[in-house]
């Protein structure tokens, strides 16, 4: 029995040894499946393709028939390709080749064959066939020159252009084109290469040498010369009413086509004396013109009487009449004369503004017209009228404060009104000044857009800008006016307002030495009364109202100034 098992173990060992030898004899199959080279033989030789990963591209000459090409293809060892190499293929569209490795794995390659695009971009002929004989252009170094009969309309020539095959040209051939100046043509090859040609069309040389226009465009109205071609003269007349500097004028000159003029057009010249202009034709023949500028004689002026004789400094004065020119205005005082700066001058009106610093009092108003003196009589000059330069609003102590900026105000003499629909509402001045006034906006005014009027003595001005007033929403007491701004002790101060419904209503009087709060006598829900106490010191005080509504203390949003006097 033991002998049997030993024999069985020997047989199994030999079996395992034999199997191990068979495994070591197995060889791995290749996975390579590449196209390593792709070429096509053409009239230009053997052309190799560009292989980019799994895309293959090749460009061939124009004479190649894409529908019948036989490529030469090299692939990885032990691999196979389909379609087969060295077989005729139609490459009018991309062709897919499949390479199969020895291990059976596959890889597709897409092959694209393109016809080579032309680089040719030349103009071989440039013709004008509308002429008899045909006009042919001279082509040299990318310039083309043509000569056409004199008088030809260069703006309506039709070129016939021959260019390289498969190229394009811009502007187009066989269309009406303006050749009054050189025209640049761009020829674009099939491969987008570009070449520019400059085409110039010339006339036969002209003998024309005339001045066709002679004018001065720098002036209004334009001065146009009268040209006499028989006597070769040019005459320009300057209107008497226009101020032209004939010592320094620049004529605009138009001459015959292809001719030149000397001095040239636009060049400054002194026309106090006659000037000569030489016109040279294209064929170098010349003609000389003599240009003369003269000034029209002015008619006698007339002046209208002034509509008033009292003016304010800063006011504009207009003098009316006829035949005005070269005017100068002056004010003549016993102590001397002052020349005014003219704002605007026409043949019938001269306007000037009295400076704000003008000397006040009586002065003779005179005007010189073309150096001749004319008197308009005596006028009286008063202080300047107020001017509003700006309006702004701000909020202080629950009040809307309107600040009026301007000039020619007079502290202590200013009065301010809010104006709506021609109705004036006097405003309370909180802070007065010579160039700024602050007023408190009355919140009980009817809602709307209000202009602001400032009166200074007997002068007044109304703003163009408006202040918008909206309906009040507060339940606080409001002060709109007081019966007096200056009071003595023992006098009654009547305060007008709104929302005066609390209990009690008290007045707060605030001065530099402190403040006091006292009950007032309620006359109605829009008016209260308070007697100035005998122990109140002289001075300026601010007043406000306060009251309780349901145990809630309410303060007026308007503070008024009053002064207590001895």
UniProtKB/TrEMBL annotation:
Coiled-coil regions, chain positions: none
Residue ranges annotated for the DUF5018 domain, each copy included:
28-114
Q: Which SUPFAM superfamilies match?
A: E set domains (SSF81296)
Q: From what superkingdom does this record's organism come?
A: Bacteria
Span of domain IPT/TIG? 386-466
Q: What is this protein called?
A: DUF5018 domain-containing protein
Tell me which species this is from: Labilibaculum euxinus
Taxonomic lineage is: Bacteria, Pseudomonadati, Bacteroidota, Bacteroidia, Marinilabiliales
